[in-house]
Amino acid sequence: MIRIDELLRAYRQGFFPMADPDDKKVYWCQPYKRAVVPLVSYNPSRDVARMVRKREFEVRINSDFEGVIRGCAAPRKSDCQTWISPEIIQAYLTLNQLGVAHSVECWHNGVLSGGLYGLAMGAAFFGESMFFRRSYASQVAFDHLVMRLKERGYLLLDAQIMNPHLQKLGAVEIDHDEYMLQLDCALGKKIRFI
């Protein structure tokens, strides 16, 4: 079982957990290159901006955190495995109850259609995972997250490990030392996510 105090300490030190898809054992990751989304230069795609303008989705915060994390843990079409183990789910459900973990959700006609979850600590938001069941739902949730972070004065949006989807959303890679400087600065500021 993941101890919550250890989990929070790990984030403060630049680590995050991932479970091995085969044995479900949790490992602590600290990549040499970190994916971050520069909040000042974020620009949504035209399609996402259009979806936001049309209000295609109702965006909610923390109304179904468990539904979001389980949606993120469900295997993707392209991959039948997941790094979000039952142990990780339980730890983040506890963090949500403590007001540290949050979900941004897109609902369509009363149905959870996509979203994301992560941790808010100081002026840093650690994005963990996102999912969608309806096109653009996760991207609209991401857009809402970025706007919320910018409005509240957050300094760091950690996306952890670069992939093509994150790159399309505006993520860039920085060296570990630069990440730790940004993290230290962000953790020194107090901001409420809700």
Describe the fold and architecture:
By secondary structure, the chain is of the alpha+beta class. It is 37% helix and 27% strand. It has a single domain, classed as Leucyl/phenylalanyl-tRNA-protein transferase, C-terminal domain (Aminopeptidase, 3-Layer(aba) Sandwich). It is built from 7 helices and 9 strands; from the N terminus they run αβββαβααβββαβαβα. Strand 5 and strand 6 form a beta hairpin. Helix 3 packs antiparallel against helix 4. The chain is globular. The relative contact order is 0.21.
* Structural class designation: alpha+beta
State the fourth-level CATH superfamily: Leucyl/phenylalanyl-tRNA-protein transferase, C-terminal domain
At the fold tier of CATH, the topology name is Aminopeptidase
Total of domains:
1
Strand order of the largest sheet: 4-5-6-7-8-3-9
What attributes does this structure have?
single chain, seven-stranded mixed β-sheet, two-stranded antiparallel ribbon, 7 helices, globular, 27% strand, alpha+beta, Aminopeptidase, 194 residues
Give a summary of the structure in a few sentences.
The chain has 194 residues and is α+β, with helices and mostly antiparallel strands.
Fold topology:
Layout (H helix, E strand, L loop, with lengths): L3 H9 L3 E4 L6 E4 L3 E4 L9 H9 L3 E4 L3 H9 L12 H12 L3 E8 L2 E11 L2 E9 L4 H16 L3 E5 L3 H5 L3 E4 H12 L7
Parallel strand pairs: 7-8
Antiparallel strand pairs: 1-2, 3-8, 3-9, 4-5, 5-6, 6-7
Helix pairs in contact: 3-4
